[in-house]
Protein 1
Amino acid sequence: MSNLKRLHNTLEEITKLVKDATEEVYREYKQGETFENAIVLSVLENSHDYTVDRLLSIMDYFSSHEFSYEGILGVRQGGKYEIESTNHYFSCGSSMEVFASENEYDEVKWHVGRIEYSDKFGGYYFYNHYGENIKLKIGMLVRVRKVKTRW
């Protein structure tokens, strides 16, 4: 059997294993009503859009229930956002979660994303990975999840 055929067969086996495992995890997560379960469920429902590595990274992120920092959003000298009473500040691309509503009609809940900067948004804003972008405001509740890296 050629190396190419062997690789093809291996990839088919991996795809079947991932599909079976995803269906099991989907059933398990569907039973939970937590913030993390809702995001993972959404990812699994749309898993055809993700590579296996991306799925594993998302699962790693949401399986962590520890936070490096959690507190009130403030602004430090120089205009960068920070978590008050800590030395943790945010730059473009910094990951964070905010407790807010996407607009005036939505409920307040946790959102996952990162800090970005654009004149279009009047400076720094929250880029929401799973919804509409959110205007940052001093006094918002924010947190940074402690996540293990894959490399």
Protein 2
Amino acid sequence: MAGPIAIGIPERRYDVSSIWICRISENKSGNVFNLRVGTSLANVIPEYHQLRYVDVDVKARESSEWMSTRALLDSGGQGSFINHQLSTRYQLPCLVKPTPLSLILADGSPSKGGNVTHFNPLVLRIASNEEAIGLDVAPTTHDIVLGIPWLEKHDPTICYDHNTMTFDSSFCRANCTHFGKSIPLHKEPSPAESFSWQLGVQERDKGYRSRKVLPPRNLSEVSRPQVTRDVPFPNSVDETALSVPSMVVSTTPLSKASPSLSPRKSKPVRW
């Protein structure tokens, strides 16, 4: 009966720098021996490959204009997302989530973008098939991310060697017009998305180059002590708060607000 997997050291006639994966087995007579099933691990290094994107179109249900981009296929995400700037730019319909979500990164730490409080109810079109989908609005680096819910529902066959995705599941046979179709997978995001990344880097570098170093101020030039205030004046707008996409500005009048209500707890979601 086969035993557990173990790491074995080869015989002396082999190079001692080679490490082999061995399976400890037992023959009919009860003698234990090592069966070599692996290969050398001395030169193994981590590998990195490009992500995969698929061409998609999205629109509001009542709209006739489609917005085309590429969506990242993410089998490690518990949900599907849309970039908050993209959602705002195209003025997509936005609804408040009943329960906010806190995004948990791969290292277990929460996302610095804050909780996800809104989502876009949209129509998603892939390979001529149209379906309703809710995309959480989040500060992602990709235009759209299709996570486990979408991948599990359609269960497509993905061939990374040929960069194709085929819709051949029983669900697609019964519910989708793209059943039997194969579409290409791309190793690059949409050109507009790539351009925005490059533009952001260029603007950042331009700002660094234009930054001037001011000489230290002489205390004699200061006519009066500098006064700092931690609390903004009433009726003033905090520009920092408005720049944070996860912050929600309530439109409820103060007279109708209930101070006894405690804030809703967020539900953690890994992505």
Protein 3
Amino acid sequence: MATATGVQQERKADETALITGSEAIAVACKLADVDVVTAYPIRPYDTVMQYVAKLVANGDLDCEYIVAEGEHSQFEIVKHASACGARVFCGSSGVGWMYAMEALTVTPALKAAGVDADYFLLDSEYGHSASGRDAHKWAPRLRAFMESLE
């Protein structure tokens, strides 16, 4: 059995670290100062939510972390939270997106009402490995989001 020893040292602002794509997304949530995060344990994005949960548990991210009973519920939660002005984050798998599509169809109406609502569908032939093998598809989107925070 593996056990963790020591305490992870605080990284300096100018220090570069090699991290996974899932951890990078969690760090983006922290830097974006999200208010509400909804999670549902489904592959491939459950590792993202595990990293977000660690940030919340360690006190590095102050947000409402809600584990929903399904994708439909998590999308409804963030839809309504964003309509109230909260900065939100959630994710899912291909099957989850199809299940939750009912909640996503209101995105154009939210945009028309002035809410900064959007979603990004990663089209990949690699399935659950897409976050690693198709990083070139999602990395520009993440970079643009990060730059918008400056």
